[in-house]
Amino acid sequence: MIMTITIIIETVKKENHSMKKNMKNRMMAGAAVFAALVAAGPAPAKADPRSYVWTYEYMTVREGHAELEYYSTTEVADTDAPETSSWKHQVELEYGLTPKTDIAMYQNFKQSNTPTSKTFSYDGMKLRLRHRLAERGELPVDALLYGEYVRNTDLSAQGAFEGKLVLAKDLGRLNLAYNQVVEFPLERLAAAEHRFSAGASWKFSGSLKAGLEATGDYKANAYHAGPTVHLRARDMKVWANLGYLAGLNSDSKDAQTRLIVGVPF
User: Fold this and answer.
1) Residues contacting 10, CB < 8 A, separation 6+
2) 27 pLDDT higher than 90
3) What domains are defined for the chain?
4) What pTM, to 2 d.p., does this model score?
């Protein structure tokens, strides 16, 4: 394992100094180091089913249990101008209402960076419900319904609704997931926006999963794709997911990263 980490560190030292390669290589090198450390030990008795950071899977929190999650998302529209970026922070508390339904509340914060200013502010809240239509494997494709009320700090607006149809399938160690998303302001239903996210992940052990994700926004003509890694502590008390997305066309942000850390209790 020491030899593996040494090779990774030497690789990072030789990175190209361009922003795009630098961000991608640092994320992948860091993920590889953590993966080597976690995979070196014995796998836990039970694996966390979550595999992605942009794509929801077929899962809800167990009835009577709760989980605290922290999201950190970085967006860089142009990696040739990295001084302009946004950092979004989100704290989520979710709770299992029934064997198939859970509820969650989010508190959102945002930092916007430009060459002349850096601002940090509260960015509103979200309230979410998820419901699984059946037990895993009972249907040809597992299906979950997701509804979310989004309220920003502009109290003159009524807020927005975001709905997702989550479809997923487990094929041995391979997980496939697809989300069809619609979001619209409550006062202007005709202004709905349609998006998608999708992922494919391979379970290497109870502590390690790795895969690919893709997202798309039809109205903005923005499409992204990149790798995602899931790591879980052997004591089952904390897990972390790390993902990177690269823009696939000129209408897309050049780079996005997201880290999610979860603590079930």
Assistant:
1) none
2) no
3) 2-264 (2.40.160.40)
4) 0.79
Of 73, 56, 67, 58, the closest CA to residue 103 belongs to 67
Query: And the tokens for 112?
Result: 């916007």
> Letter for the amino acid at 61?
V
**Which residue is associated with the tokens 């960015």?**
123
**Residue listed under structure tokens 């167990």:** 62
Query: Which residues 6+ apart lie within 8 Å of 65 measured at CB?
Result: 95, 96, 264, 265
Q: How far is CA 133 from CA 75, 138, 190, in A?
A: 34, 10, 28
Euclidean distance between CA atoms 123 and 106, whole angstroms: 10
In tens, the pLDDT along 72-123 reads 999 999 999 999 999 999 999 999 999 999 999 999 999 999 999 999 999 9
35 pLDDT more than 50: no
